[in-house]
Amino acid sequence: MTAQEIDQRIYDLYDEYCHSGMDRRTFLQRASKITIAGVSGLVMAQALLPRYAEAQTISFTDKRIKATYVDYSSPGGTSGEMRGYLVTPTTDGPHPAVLVIHENRGLNPYIEDVARRFAAEGFLALAPDGLSPVGGYPGNDDDGKILQKSLEQSKLKQDFLNSASFLKDHESSNGKLGATGFCWGGGTTNFLAVEMGDDLKAGAPFYGAAPKGDDAVARITAPLYIHSAEDDKRINAMWPDFETALKANGKGYERFVYEGTRHGFHNNSTPRYNEGAAATAWERTVKLFNETIRTG
After folding, report:
1. Using one digit for the tens of pLDDT, what is the confidence trace for 9-63?
2. Same domain flag for 170 and 129
3. Phi, psi of 79, rounded to the nearest 5 degrees
4. Are residues 279 and 228 part of one domain?
5. Given this model, what pLDDT does residue 122 score?
6. FRET label pair with 84: which of 75, 135, 189, 268, CA 20 to 30 Å apart?
7. What's the domain count of the chain?
8. What would the mean pLDDT of 193-209 be, rounded to a whole number?
9. Dihedral angle computed from the Cα positions of residues 186, 288, 60 and 93, in that order, rounded to the nearest 10 degrees
């Protein structure tokens, strides 16, 4: 089923399901009560559920990369320990480093694939699993969402600060760090930009929550490429205040709004994916990182 065949009400319901305590059963039950032109909303809802095996673009056996899981300390985090998916280019290093931050459900296969994509472009990429201190991504997004919501958010954010420092100081890193993330990870990219100051050289948040307050934005030094979906009321409502603070504090940023897209347009495991917009956003992000952490 194509994106155009799915009714807006089903998209809205899916967004609520992804960003609330709604479980999959309730999501599907509510969707089944909607019928459009003889097509059950249940069919549409099921089409939106991720299909990760079909979405892989870079194999973990790709000869351009070497992928492995690594453990590292995380003082002040959920448990004091973290685990992440580290992907290293097979070309000679050191390499510019990119932290890849997952959505609100842990390190799923889509985010691992994004890390491999960056490594194939010549970046040292780390995708931390915020759920690793409590057993790791459980193998499905429903349980992952519940597990991530149960964590103390300040400690979870500390785990990502520690992950960023681990990557920046890694022996294969050139010491220059960029960050990108999606949904919750986009908001956490903005959080890192606030908290890390000069230690973060660039950030590319995808449809992420804005930092809260002018004082927070004033602490950002990294240039930002802010990727936004056209149809994303929850996130876009934060933009006017964020932009005002960025301008008032003289921060370097560009915001890109992708026409005809919805929240999650980069995720190629569901029909929310917009191939053209995702490709353009990827090219812009790689360009930003090439200009800020590969050289200069």
Report:
1. 888 888 888 777 788 888 888 888 887 767 778 888 777 777 887 789 999 899 9
2. yes
3. -135, -5
4. yes
5. 97
6. 268
7. 2
8. 97
9. -130
Q: Are 45 and 13 in contact (CB under 8 A)?
A: yes
β-partners of residue 70 are 84
| 149 and 32 housed in the same domain | no
Please name the residues in contact with 143: beta carbons below 8 A apart, sequence gap of 6 or more: none
Q: How far apart are CA 95 and CA 86, in angstroms?
A: 13
Q: Tell me if the bond preceding 89 is cis, omega within 30° of 0.
A: no
Q: How far apart are CA 65 and CA 2, in angstroms?
A: 33
Supply angle C-alpha 132, 66, 105, rounded to 5. 30
Identity (one letter) of the amino acid at 198? D
Instruction: Give Rg (Cα) of the chain.
Output: 19
pTM: 0.92
Give the CA distances from residue 253 to residues 94, 226, 242, 265, in Å, rounded to whole numbers and listed in that order.
Answer: 27, 7, 11, 21
Task: Give the pLDDT confidence of 66-118 residue by residue, as tens digits.
Answer: 999 999 999 999 999 999 999 999 999 899 999 999 999 999 999 999 999 99
Q: Which domain covers residue 125, as residue numbers?
A: 59-294
Q: Which of 241, 250, 125 has its CA nearest to residue 178?
A: 125
| pLDDT value, residue 5 | 80
Q: How far apart are CA 258 and CA 223, in angstroms?
A: 20
Q: What is the mean pLDDT of residues 149-168?
A: 97
